[in-house]
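Explain this one:

_____
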Amino acid sequence: MSDLRALLGIRHPVVLAPFGGLSSVELTAAVSSAGGLGSYGLYGYDGDRIRQTAAALRAATAAPFALNIWLPTGDEVAPGDEHERHAAALTDFFDEVGIDVPARPERYLPSLDEQLDAIWQAAPAALSVVFGVPSDALVDEARGRGIRVIGTATTVAEARALEQVGVDAIVATGAEAAGHRVSFLRPAEESLVGLVSLVPQVADAVRVPVIAAGGIADRRGAAAAFALGASGVQVGTSFLVTAESAANDAHRAAIRSTAADESVLTRAMSGRLSRGAANRAVRQIEASATIAPFPAQNWLTGRFRAVAAQRGMGELQSLWLGQSAPLARGRTAAEVFAELVAGLPA
């Protein structure tokens, strides 16, 4: 435990999961200020937005925080001739929220280089990555700037691959976790390892600190993670229901009402496998003949999801949540954090 605390400059080995699209400065700062590592997901952020976000985080907390990016996997599609066909398949949702079918954009996502240039300027305490192994150049640049690099693995083989490039810590994320399955060596459907199996095997396979993620919601989950060999815990769903979260009331209600066996793994909303509630949008898209590849599907559904979120239309949102959602009971970040700390080794 002390290795991770010293490595990241934190008092407690509790990490806030980086929510792509659901991060908030208030929640990230609250976890960091409490002595953990607040994380902020930068999915889709261009350089200017990253710099603005980092400035807001520094204004909100003097404690260490992490920024998170998605590494390109090489199979991402660019806007092309298929855009109009994929957009037309979602016409009913655009109509329901009262927006036009979106025209083809110049790009779906900013480039990795643009994001990294802004991250180096922001100089967070840590950079966490998902969906792959960071390049030697990325790790070297981060190390030269005093930025710790945290990789994310869903299998033992992925953890070994991350250690080989010199990451400072590895998040071992079990299949119970909310949101995207961030597998990269094999398809996500073939990499669904539960936390109880994953964490001890990863801890045995690598020498760097292992951060357990997936299904950890309270002191019992935190204690279990350390008993399995983890050096820290990463928690998402329990923090999503708090007052500081960017989740709206519809999303919070879904977390509190979705049983462990009711969450689903779906590609409907983004084109990549993700765990969340099976609302009407998920069911309808899965029943259709067309789900665009990533990131086209994510960009397209994002047009109506953003409006739906503003209006509290839960049936048209991405309601990401993990299998321990019924255990998410804290009202504030401080309450959740204190509950988790109560399960840590003395």
